[in-house]
Amino acid sequence: MVDRFHILIVDNDENDLFLWRMIVEGFGHQVSTARSGQETFRFLEKQIPDLILLDLKMPGMSGIEVSKQLRELPAYQNIPIIMLTSSDDLGDKLQSFEQGVDDYVTKEMEPLEISKRIEAVLKRYHKTLDTNPLTHLPGNNAIQKELQRRIDAGLKFAVVYCDLDHFKAFNDAYGFVEGDRVIQFTADLLRNILKEKGNQEDFLGHVGGDDFVFLTTPDKVDLLCGAIVQTFPQGVKQFYSEDDLKQGYITAKNRRGERETFPLMSISLAVVTNEHRSLSSVAEISRVASEIKKLAKSKSGSNYVVDQRKN
């Protein structure tokens, strides 16, 4: 059975768009469409697909130009791209690969081959980047790679580790399905705040479970973290029953298997920055973050703590 993926098809020709949509939906995938490069970027501001099928020849912004811009933006650079082409021009194909395209398909190919190419590209990406299957955010490999890139480039950066408080108790009380909804809500909240208030180059990753990491610049820390700790507590209430909201806590088993009361979920942010101190490795950053995270989680409610130490 083929896994179901969300695929964005970009083509300015209505007939071709209809054809590609029929082929892709025929293999059980969810399809969204865009008709230009500009429309593609507007779509990506709202949601991230698993893969983009991108027409090579489009007026205005060509498929190659769209691919080039996507690969230059950390928020989008890990989205797999397959170029749609009716051209057998080797130069076009080589230029596409140079701009970060992962594969190409043509209308002359059999639908089964197109489906297999889509599956192959997605499998490579998920294996290489350890992409989280729930949130579709880059995993540990991509996070460490992006962090090392910023270290090597000598950039000023801030690493923000995000962890949900009392998530395990909620998961035990409400079940894994509701727990997954909370994880998706958190990913969407972080993604939206970064897009609205952050830099274009900011990077968001999903370590796993209820742990997220984002990279930004030191000057954005208070704005972003402040928005997150203000927005999360109100938004997460939607996942609780009226009774639990009224009493302000839930009852669940603790790690010893005993019944215990737990507060409603909150979010703790641990911030590590090289603004006033040198940080030379991912391992060093992780060690410092672990210390700051303990301090953040020792406080009640949603909050953020910034490492203030200097060299």
UniProtKB/TrEMBL annotation:
SMART domains: GGDEF, REC. The lineage of its organism: Bacteria, Pseudomonadati, Calditrichota, Calditrichia, Calditrichales. Keywords: Phosphoprotein. Residues 6-122 form the Response regulatory domain. It comes from Caldithrix abyssi DSM 13497. Residues 155-310 form the GGDEF domain. CDD domains: GGDEF. This is Diguanylate cyclase (GGDEF) domain-containing protein. Pfam families: GGDEF, Response_reg. InterPro entries: Bact_response_regulator, CheY-like_superfamily, GGDEF_dom, Nucleotide_cyclase, Rev_trsase/Diguanyl_cyclase, Sig_transdc_resp-reg_receiver. The modification 4-aspartylphosphate is found at D55. PROSITE patterns: GGDEF, RESPONSE_REGULATORY. It comes from the Bacteria. GO terms for biological process: phosphorelay signal transduction system. PANTHER family: RESPONSE REGULATORY DOMAIN-CONTAINING PROTEIN, STRESS RESPONSE REGULATOR PROTEIN 1.
